[in-house]
Amino acid sequence: MTKLKLAISTMILLATTMTAQQQGNNLKVVAAMDIRPGDVAVSAEGRVFATIHPLGSQKMQLTEIVNGKAIPYPSASFQKYDAEASDAKFDAMLGLIFDKNNQLWVTDMGLELGKSRLWAFDISKNKVVEKIELPQTVAPKGTFTQDVAIDEKNGFAYLADIANPGIIVLNLKTKKTRRFSGHVSLQAEDKDMIIDGKVTYFGGKPARVAIDPITLSNDRETIFFGAMNGTSWYSVPAKLFREGKSDAEISNAIKKVGSKPFSDGALTDETGNHYFTNLQEHAITKVDISGKLTTVVQDAQKLQWPDNVYKGPDGWMYISVNQLNTSPAFTGAKDQGNPPYYIYRFKP
Length: 348
Prior knowledge:
- Residues 1-20 form the signal peptide.
- It comes from Flavobacterium sp. CFS9.
- Pfam families: MRJP.
- A hairpin with a 4-residue loop joins strand 8 and strand 9 (127-133).
- It contains 4 helices and 28 strands.
- The chain starts with a helix and ends with a strand.
- The chain is mostly beta strands.
- The strands form 8 sheets. The protein has a 4-stranded antiparallel beta sheet with strand order 1-28-27-26, with no helix packed on it. Strands 2-3-4-5 form a 4-stranded antiparallel beta sheet, with no helix packed on it.
């Protein structure tokens, strides 16, 4: 009887794996690039934008994907092209997102310049409309604001900093900022990230990457977040930050809302489902409102470090894939990446 149960379990596992791998055939190439994309975002009209990961190339920082090609956005004059960083140019762009007003927001970590900035663009005019510099007291040099969530309704931005694990809160109207840090939910779990049977290293030791993906509920009242090296997905009421509540009050309000895979990116859709880039399983994993985890798409060859996932206006889901664990920051040696790097899309 035990052997029969084991055989049945094995068959179910194999069938599930085969189904997930077959789903990988649904991945359609949006762009094949010789430099690593960071994050991808899609406008209300379906225009596709991507940052270039600062752990890869220092040529371009922000691009629009046009006919499968990465074009400097909004123009070549903003790109660094390996030159010295300056206030007038981009430095280390990474997280990007459209708000509900179709305005594009991009984090600039300022890894060379030493200044963290948040840029906003009116894509109808291809024009910069905001360039907000975060104060050194909140975001000193070395801050790694990799992801951002925008509340256009109340005028707030929430940035996740993995270097000094915390959430940076920016009032977009007054430009006042605060940092929330110190809570265990912001920290990496003490678990190895194993990809293709190998422990992933970062900075010369087993990776322990803290808070990374951060999202907002559709009504902008709940912030969701979790560590890259972590299997827990947390929530906290955004109202507490808007009203300037104490760190203690915010800490007491943080709740675990479900489990997640080790992930670099996440999105929360309009109905409350969460989608994660599943680094260890080369997949996109969905966590529905009941907390159930399912594999949406999986491909061991194509999804080598899916960096972020983004939902377009037409139901397509977009994924940037950049083999980031083969970059020098992870390998501690020369770049072991094998271009091209891809932006894919698929129908869930």
